[in-house]
Prior knowledge:
Elements (H helix, E strand, L loop, with lengths): L1 H9 L3 H14 L4 H9 L2 H7 L5 H14 L6 H9 L2 H11 L3 H14 L6 H7 L1 H13 L1 E2 L2 E2 L1 H4 L6 H13 L3 H9 L4 H12 L8 H13 L3 H4 L2 H5 L2 H6 L16 H10 L24 H11 L3 H14 L5 H12 L3 H5 L7 H14 L3 H10 L1 H6 L12 H15 L3 H9 L2 H10 L6 H15 L2 H9 L4 H6 L11 E2 L4 E2 L29 H4 L79
Antiparallel strand pairs: 1-2, 3-4
Helix pairs in contact: 1-2, 2-5, 5-8, 7-8, 8-12, 10-12, 10-14, 12-15, 14-15, 15-21, 20-21, 21-24, 24-27, 27-30, 29-30
Amino acid sequence: LPHLLEILTTATNGKLLSSAAGCIQHLAYNQDHMKNRIRDIGCIPILVRLLQAEEEVCLSALGALRNLSFGIQNNLNKIAINEAHGVTLLVQLLKSSDNFEIQELVTGVFWNLSSSEQVKPELLKRALESIVKYIIIPQSGWKGSQVRSDIASNIQCTTVFRNATGCLRNLSSAGLEGRQVMRSCHGLVDSLLFVLRCVQGKNDVDNKAVENSVGILRNLSYRLDSEVSPEHKYGQTDDWRSKGLGGGQFKRKDMGDDIKKIKKNSKKHKGKENATPLPEHTNGVGLLWQPNVVRVYLDLLLECSNPETLEGAAATLQNLTASNWEPAQHLRESVRKEKGLSVITSLLRMTNDSVVRATAVCLRNLAGDAKNKELLGENAVHDLVKRLPGGEGADGITDMTIGAIISALLELVSASPETARRLKELGGIGRLVEISRSTDVYSGQCVHISNRLLASCWEIRELRKSIKNEGWNIAMLQRQAPPDRSDGLEYDETNNQFKASYNTGLDRTNKNRHRSPGRALSPGTMSPGSMSPAARRVLSPSGYEANIHGRGSEHPTMGRAATIGRSFEPNFGFSRVEDYEMGRGQSLPARSLPPSHPLNSNYGVADSWV
Length: 610
């Protein structure tokens, strides 16, 4: 290493510099102790300076930096690259070079750096705009209101596009400030949604670039009701101020002579008090909550078999339907009108724990709409009960997912005696009683919410005898101690929901999570029957709508859980970024790996009966 450092410091011959940088690249491959030694002797600033050298030397330096910055445990190397002004020089290189190899290596380094919490702010400040302008927009095929037909007909998700979206996926987990910066970045949301529309129906929905795009949109859809400004929500500033619009509600500022008109509108929008038609957004951040975006995610759920993408799409719908503001009400209705309730419910039959959990919480949010609640009560309870412990589909389900399933059941059973009876007929009462008793097996949150659901069923007099026969009575709820918070799953009793996880870490292990003996985590792969989109297509040609009698009114909405995806390393889902040929460093072809992350943020999915 000292000899290589001397060459890099004193040599002027391009071939010699390129060979020395190539040696460091290979010494750093899969050798964490060697990466530390290379950093300690001061090689990283020298390699960063070589980014300004001739192309051959630059390629070798990029390969070395990419290897040095790879790995969760090599965060100090990522910080060192940033402190040597590496981000600035990488951005300049991205702007000035049309060489595909350079673009691939630059975006690969960006992806590695983006997993560091300390480097994310610098990437958001200096690299985000350039990545979107020079990579995301051109390679997505989106170009303002016009579409480049040559790309739109055959989207090519290149390794450069994959790397760039992987970097942005990590950046979207950088908290509120990061989400705000990315939402305001021109063309980002438009391009990603355009890609998702173009790849559908072309047998290309399972690739890593699509997964990354969904992960970004999932994170940017997090807490829209509280994080998006009124100007973006309701149109121009003058418009929303003149109409008295603001916050999370649509209100008229001056009743005046419009009382009759307001009364007429209130009858028309029964259950949607103070509702005002939403402005239509044709570009920018407003596209995130337009009703037509529901179709994009539902089509992904129908066609995709990648569990990461399925979880991300379901979690995006979960986020979009999670709040009290007006767009969430419209989106809950849009899911039903697009016959998406059955599409989402069918994901409960998959073996992937994360997909099942996102699906359960999404269904709970969708039940905030009275019609959805009725239809889900008739058609989804069977699949929910089946995944509870004691059922044939309970293998591989973690406590957090069990809690999400019970929470969804509680929402459906509440004020719905018919659904409670159906729960009893399907054997759900006995399974819930078993969970409520097993305080040494299940987490405090699972036990607590099980008791709450049993208490809700207890209110129906004809069910009390069956519940008593299973060994439970209302006194057990009254004697129950508050659930502990040691397992990281915090339950909001007031709103019947498990609070969102803010874990932006890279560790996917289930620390402190209670599991019953014999229950293992999902292996990360799905059986052919449950994974195949064709196997999840059609339950009933007529859909749910045929079962509706009367319009009913909207169910009062409550605060609902939203999730944000995690930050993750680029080795999650494709070949290791350290697999290079000497000198150049081409990565291996993409390969599918078991899911290992979600969020982004911090970091969030068919049959058809509606």
